[in-house]
Amino acid sequence: MYGNDFGVSDEPPGSDGLLQQVEAAEADLRAAADRTLSGSEGSYFDRVIAVDQRIEPRDEMPEGYRRTLIRQIAQHAHSEIIGMQPEANWITRAPSLKRKAILLAKVQDEAGHGLYLYSAAETLGVSREELVDRLLSGKQKYSSIFNYPTLTWADVGAIGWLVDGAAIVNQVALCRCSYGPYARAMIRICKEESFHQRQGFEILWVLSRGTPAQKQMAQDAVNRWWYPSLAMFGPPDSESTHSAQSMAWKIKRFSNDELRQKFVDMCVPQAEALGLTLPDPDLRWNEERGSYDFTPPDYRELMRVISGDGPCNRQRMEHRRRAHEEGAWVRAAAAAYAAKQRQRQRERERVAA
Amino acid sequence: MTAPQESRTAPGRTDDAAAAASWPLWEVFVRPRRGLAHVHVGSLHAADAATALHHARDLYTRRQEGVSIWVVPSAQITASSPDEKDAFFDPAADKIYRHPTFYQVPEGVPHL
Predict the structure, then answer these.
(1) ipTM of the assembly?
(2) To bridge A221 with a disulfide, which of A116, A158, A165, A239 should be the other Cys (CB 3.0-4.6 Å)?
(3) Beta-strand pair B39-45/B25-31
(4) How many angstroms away from the CA of A119 is the closest CA of chain B?
(5) Which CATH architecture has domain B4-78?
(6) What is the pTM of this model?
(7) Pairing label, strands B68-73, A284-286
(8) To the nearest whole angstrom, how far is the Cα of B2 from the nearest Cα of chain A?
């Protein structure tokens, strides 16, 4: 319809599997809701968690549970919002109108995901302004991955395939999170993310079947995004500070290392299908474990980038602050218009009375 | 046309800024298809009802998820309290005779 591109129907192996996992999570959610809470021992919260039901906004919950969720959901929301920037970098330079329309829709989705998540965080008693303020003041972080630059068009493909792929592995697990509003937002997001991952895969698929220079561009993008994508799962289990408690509260269902392994196992056959190489000479099948052995990412780099010293940290935050400031007049105008409408309504009611 | 002078004054701007910083929260309900009920899908912030509807369309129906949207100011919703859940719903718990399975029906009686 948009001309100079052609559709490719080949899908990354494993995408269906992920959507099926989301549906399984939804089915388990319904099944858990039918279970009755066992006994009267322990708090209401503990009994709900024990039978895998969901905690809802007005239920009693430990203060630590609330704080952990606010931090995690907020960081997740911030990541979606900041995550618009690396891809938006290519909207005006997309190679065709079709690619541009797709990329616009994808970036709009990321904004939507950020908003679903802010809404979920707000059910825990934190205000939107507070969340925005914590992002802009640097008090809360966002995913380190968005501090890397998008140097070529192939990076848009690599982000969709690897970064969104890693996000999906993480998020499919979060569809089973014990906090209802977060789990529901994740289910919705996962269904939309699967489009993101496929569009990324397809960009690389087309490039890897193009000219040698195009294939090289795809390979170069994969080389640069592979290790930062592996780092998205966070520090190794041995150094992860929040993991044990989050697992007990069923906020997290799998450890960082388990999810990272799952992601590697998923990517290897997909890379083979693409005809691209993952930049790890030690990547090989381990018969005994039934998984691939791989070189872990440089966790010192991860910590450095999270703490502000990545290639694009300053640029990302500056852009976000500027966008927020430049949008102030829109927010003010809408509020002024609403106030004026309310005023007129009151006047009409006075006249009628 | 220039804006009225008073809206440019400092106090006015402060009020605007305060209002702008805290657009009220709206709950969004979407009817997925004709014949189905509206279902709660989430919430959003908007200055007024008309913009809340537009935001809801952009946020919750990007993939044809609905044919109709309701937006309701969150502050207007009165909810039952989870703390009183047991006492509140108890009256329904001991009236099993409200369910058809409570009654024994002789074998062979049709249409019952």
Answers:
(1) 0.84
(2) A158
(3) antiparallel
(4) 6
(5) Roll (3.10)
(6) 0.87
(7) unpaired
(8) 14
